[in-house]
């Protein structure tokens, strides 16, 4: 089974690409969704211990938590040290479960895949790409996003130029959603048809 990582800058089209993979019947894992679930259950005690007062109605208040850690690298590192192992455990289980079903391909969406430096046992990595101006426009349209918050997020992320160099496949999302879906479909078909010898390339 091909284990394909999916990553890219904030608002670069990862969610659209991941949904396109899922529509084609490919097993997919979203790290963001996993964190959201953990913040409503398993991770609540440890995060509350690190940042007292961030729990609301039995779940982590992500807005409040964001206020606590953004701009404070040491606090962010402590949070990641507590939560990331839980996410990695879920990824390992997801991949094992997908392989046990006989799937030829499984996708793991990890926003900070390159930045984190962890070996997830992935075979290849696809990176979503959009123009910097488009990324800023998309991100700033999100609820609760501000220029300062976006700049802080981008400061933690590897520049797109470096991501391009490390990618095995590039998924350009600058065009329409239909075009992104077509690129994803082409990549899935290529991987399913020749998983052992497919060369690197752009979609």
Q: Strands, helices and their partners?
A:
Blueprint: E1 2-8, H1 14-23, E2 28-30, H2 31-38, H3 44-50, E3 55-56, E4 59-60, H4 62-69, H5 73-100, E5 105-109, H6 113-116, E6 124-129, H7 132-140, H8 147-156, H9 160-166, E7 169-172, H10 177-193, E8 201-202
Parallel strand pairs: 1-5, 1-6, 2-5, 6-7, 7-8
Antiparallel strand pairs: 3-4
Helix pairs in contact: 1-10, 2-5
The end-to-end span amounts to 21 Å
State the total count of DSSP E strands. Answer: 8
Query: What is the assigned CATH homologous superfamily of the largest domain?
Result: P-loop containing nucleotide triphosphate hydrolases
Percent strand equals 15-25%
CATH architectural label of the largest domain: 3-Layer(aba) Sandwich
Order of helices and strands: EHEHHEEHHEHEHHHEHE
Tell me about the biggest sheet? 6 strands, parallel
CATH fold-level topology of the largest domain: Rossmann fold
- What's the shape? globular
Helix content: 40-55%
Count of separate DSSP helical elements: 10
CATH class value of the largest domain: Alpha Beta
